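Quick one from the shared queue. A colleague (R.T.) flagged DUF2470 domain-containing protein as missing a structural entry in our internal table.

Convert sequence to structure tokens.
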Amino acid sequence: MPDTDDQDTATKSRIITHLNRDHHDSVGPTPNSSNKPPLLTLPLTTPPLPKLVRYLEHYTHLSHLRANSAYLTTLDLSSLTLTSGSGPPTTTRTHHIPLTPPMASYAETRERVVAMDREARLALNRSETTVKEFLPPTGIYAVLFTTITFVFLAYSQRWWFAPGQLVEGWLGPGFARFSFVMQPWVLGVMLFMHTTEMLYFMRYKLIRHSVNPGSRLFWLWTGTTFVEGAGAFWRFNGLVRGKEEARARKGH
């Protein structure tokens, strides 16, 4: 029996360490080092396990932002215990997720947590593909980004188009008069369209692909989407498509 208990303890330590280290979330913060379980090395052949953040979102209804600080503190045959928050104990919360039915042994852990993750993904409408990278605008995308930025700046001040001001002197009174009339409409329409695109992108692209709203990655994508609109969508979709194709090739 002591040998079996020691083996179970070692197995639990490996599972906890692996989940916290590799499958917490691709872009989330790491737990407070004083609370982390000791780091153990798993064999390279260990199959990947799912992530923890979705567990708290689905099974405990925690928001994505708060769930992102999750890490696994312990598990037994009938439950997982996760902690959210970081810093002093007063700012952290403990969450117990029951395993129904309980496992017969820790050998069932991988199968069980994969099934739980699949259930959570479907319920939360999350993709299997997690985005970890930011692709800045280059090439034609850089041209698009620069052009739209210039238009935003050019139409940000109406007085530039007033009689006797900058634009009239550079481009003539006809263009200046036209732009003076159109400036509120141009700026208003651009702000409305780009804000709408940005909000859609945040909800249905970034969150769907498990990008943490508290991360730098999230706001890099959000900022470029606000400026260039469709260009950011095309790059992001291409990145996701490449990841899905790579995963499909590995599956065959």
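The first helix runs from residue 2 to 22.
Residues 1 and 7 are 10 Å apart (CA to CA).
Added to the table.
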